[in-house]
Amino acid sequence: MTPVMLSIAGSDCSAGAGIQADIKTGFALGCYPLTVVTCVVSEAPGHVAGIAPLDADFVAGQLAECLRSFPVAAVKTGMLYSPEILRAVAKLLPSGIPLVVDPVMVATAGDALMLDETLSVYEELLFPRATLITPNLDELARLTASPLAHSLPQLEESARALADHTACAVLAKGGHLNGDICTDVLCSAAGELQRFQHSRVTGVTTHGTGCTLSSAITAFLAQGCPLSEAVQRGLNYTTHAIEHSHRWKNICALNHALV
C-alpha cells in the first residue's frame, strides 16, 4: 500500500514552496500526499505580495476529514501563521505517528510568515509532540533567543540548546553558512550530534528548499525509515532537486530555482 503523508501548510502560487512543494515531493518519493491548507500566499520567489489566512475552524475541518478518511502515516507542519490556526491543528493531531515541524516564520525575502504571538503556542502545543523540528539559521536564532550562527560550532550549540529546551530532535539547517561544503546538524533530544555534509550547488538562489526538505523527511518517515536515515535521504533528495531545478532569470531579476 502506498504510504500516506499529510502536509499542513500554506499555498504558494509560484508552486516552489508550501503545499505545492510538499505535493511534488511526496509523489516523487512514492507517497500519497494529503494537504490541509492554512493560508493562501500571493508570492513569487523573492517577494511576498500578500497573505490570506483561512478560518481556523475551516482548517480544522480539512484536517479532520483527512484523518477520518485516510491511514495517515506521518505529518508535517509548515506555515501555520496564527495562534488560532495552530491551536486548531494541535487539538486534532494524532499521537503515535511521526510529526515533522518546519517552524516557518520568515520568507527568504524577509517577509513575516507568522504572527509574533504564535511562537509561544508552538512551544506550548506543537514542539512537545514533534518527532523533529527543522529550523533554518534565522528560525534557530529566534527559537533559542541567541545570535545568528555564523560557524558550525555555533550551529551545533544552538541545535543542542533547542533540543534541550523542547526535548525533541532538531535538524539545524546550515545551508546559509559560508563554505563550499554545506553542513546540517541533527541533534537528538538527548543532545547527541550527527553531521550531514554535501557539496554546495552554486550560482542559484533557491525558493522552497526548506519545505522540500521537511516534506521529504516526512515521506521517508511515512515509509518507516528511522529518523537519521530519513534525514539523510531527505537531504540527498533536496540536493538533487536543487541541482535539477527549474530556473528563470526574469523572476524578480534573480536567477531563482524552484525545486
Number of domains: 1
Unreliable stretches: none
- The helix/strand series, from N terminus to C terminus, equals EHEEHEHEHEHHEEEEHHEE
Roughly how many Å is the radius of gyration? 17 Å
Q: What proportion of the residues is helical, as a percent range?
A: 25-40%
CATH fold node name = UDP-N-acetylmuramoyl-L-alanine:D-glutamate ligase
Q: In the CATH hierarchy, what is the superfamily?
A: Ribokinase
N-to-C terminal Cα separation, in Å?
Answer: 27 Å
Tally the helices: what do you get? 8
The CATH class assignment is: Alpha Beta
Would you tell me the overall average pLDDT?
90
Order of adjacent strands in the largest pleated sheet? 3-2-1-4-5-6-7-8-9
Secondary-structure content class: alpha/beta
Overall form: globular
Please give a quick description of this structure:
It is built from eight helices and twelve strands. The protein has helices at residues 18-28, 56-69, 83-92, 118-126, 137-144, 152-166, 209-222, 227-243, and strands at 4-12, 32-44, 47-53, 72-77, 99-101, 132-133, 169-172, 181-187, 193-199, 205-207, 246-251, 254-258.
How is the secondary structure organized here?
Elements: E1 4-12, H1 18-28, E2 32-44, E3 47-53, H2 56-69, E4 72-77, H3 83-92, E5 99-101, H4 118-126, E6 132-133, H5 137-144, H6 152-166, E7 169-172, E8 181-187, E9 193-199, E10 205-207, H7 209-222, H8 227-243, E11 246-251, E12 254-258
Parallel strand pairs: 1-2, 1-4, 4-5, 5-6, 6-7, 10-12
Antiparallel strand pairs: 2-3, 7-8, 8-9, 11-12
Helix pairs in contact: 1-7, 2-3, 3-4, 5-6, 7-8
